[in-house]
């Protein structure tokens, strides 16, 4: 098995990983970014227009934003590796990260920025109309559905937050949930029930997303108690059934929170293991925005740099 030593390793890409890489590269650390084999750039690679990232008055396509971030990091010396991490060993001073091609990379500092994966419905049409009606982020995409019918799928606080937010834009919002009770807090449910623009379709599941000319137009919904189906008009279909932090490769190497995100110390990006830091959606279950992930990526780079500087000072004493 081949072993390669690096100054700093960043597992994952996206706004957090690329921002970490940029800061560490400019500081002279030549970081290795193990960006992933299938989706380097994270969830923004599946996003069309991004209008709320500062600095782009006319908006920017998600893949274009990630490509620009990657190139900027590479310009200052970051190395991008398109492989997946299959295991880690964070014991000892040198942390070991093994990729799917059998190579083990070691370094004294590691940043984990693997993000999270949205939970999907897994129904016909969902993938086909992703970015063309199907969305997983109301804050990102609600604006595109002004005065159009909108559907939100889910029954937790996130679904209710998105439904209430989307009433600012849509002509109406239909919340679809598979049961007749909700996981959401009572105050969120009460607010939604008082909002005249929100309708409820309960005891029901989405069977398919339907569209015309490349854009979503409706969803087919089945009542789980009666078996009856109906089509509900919807230009925007917002899926809010949760996120799964991408941490399976860690296999217990770091402490996790109850929701599966990586536990960090206070406002820092320090994890339960000295020398290992975490940033972005793999830590953040609240905001999950590109700009907040980028900011956390900056903090992770500065935390890692301070850690490495302290090690140098100790060795020189």
Automatic annotation (TrEMBL):
Q: SUPFAM superfamilies, per this entry? A: FAD/NAD(P)-binding domain
Query: Which top EC class applies here?
Result: oxidoreductase
Mind naming one GO cellular-component term on file for this protein?
cytoplasm
Cofactor(s) demanded = FAD
Q: Its GO biological process terms?
A: removal of superoxide radicals
Q: Report the residue ranges that make up the FAD/NAD(P)-binding domain in this protein.
A: 7-297
EC assignment: the record states: 1.8.1.9
Q: What is the superkingdom listed in this entry's lineage?
A: Bacteria
Keyword Oxidoreductase listed? The answer is yes
Which PROSITE patterns does this entry report, sorted A to Z?
PYRIDINE_REDOX_2
Q: How is the cofactor bound?
A: Binds 1 FAD per subunit.
Q: Name one GO molecular function term.
A: thioredoxin-disulfide reductase (NADPH) activity
- From the UniProt record, list the reaction(s) this protein catalyses: [thioredoxin]-dithiol + NADP(+) = [thioredoxin]-disulfide + NADPH + H(+)
The entry sums up its family as follows:
Belongs to the class-II pyridine nucleotide-disulfide oxidoreductase family.
The annotated subunit structure for this chain is: Homodimer.
The protein's name in its UniProt record: Thioredoxin reductase
Organism source for this protein?
Gardnerella pickettii JCP8017A
């Amino acid at each position: 098995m081949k072993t390669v030593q690096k100054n700093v390793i960043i597992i994952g890409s996206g706004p957090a990983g690329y921002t970490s890489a940029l800061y560490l590269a400019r500081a002279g650390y030549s970081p290795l970014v193990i960006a992933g084999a299938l989706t380097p750039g994270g969830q923004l690679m599946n996003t069309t227009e991004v209008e709320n990232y500062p600095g782009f008055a006319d908006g920017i396509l998600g893949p274009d934003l990630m490509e620009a971030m990657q190139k900027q990091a590479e310009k200052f010396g970051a190395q991008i590796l398109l492989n997946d991490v299959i295991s880690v060993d964070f014991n000892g001073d040198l942390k070991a990260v093994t990729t799917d091609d059998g190579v083990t990379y070691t370094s004294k500092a590691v940043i984990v920025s693997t993000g999270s994966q949205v939970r999907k419905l897994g129904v016909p049409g969902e993938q086909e109309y992703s970015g063309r009606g199907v969305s997983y982020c109301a804050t990102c995409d609600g604006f595109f559905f002004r005065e159009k019918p909108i559907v939100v799928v889910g029954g937790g606080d996130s679904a209710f937050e998105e439904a209430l937010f989307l009433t600012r834009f849509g002509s109406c919002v239909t919340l679809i949930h598979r049961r007749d009770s909700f996981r959401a807090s009572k105050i969120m449910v009460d607010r939604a029930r008082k909002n005249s623009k929100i309708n409820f379709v309960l005891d029901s599941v989405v069977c398919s997303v339907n569209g015309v000319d490349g854009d979503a137009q409706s969803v087919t919904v089945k009542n789980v108690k009666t078996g009856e189906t109906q089509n509900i008009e919807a230009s925007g279909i917002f899926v809010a059934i949760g996120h799964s932090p991408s941490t399976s490769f860690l296999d217990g190497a770091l402490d996790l929170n109850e929701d599966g995100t990586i536990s960090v110390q206070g406002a820092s990006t320090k994890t339960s293991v000295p020398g290992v830091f975490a940033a972005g959606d793999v830590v953040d279950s609240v905001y999950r925005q590109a700009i907040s992930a980028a900011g956390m990526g900056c903090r992770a780079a500065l935390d890692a740099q301070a850690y490495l500087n302290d090690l140098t000072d100790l060795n020189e004493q």
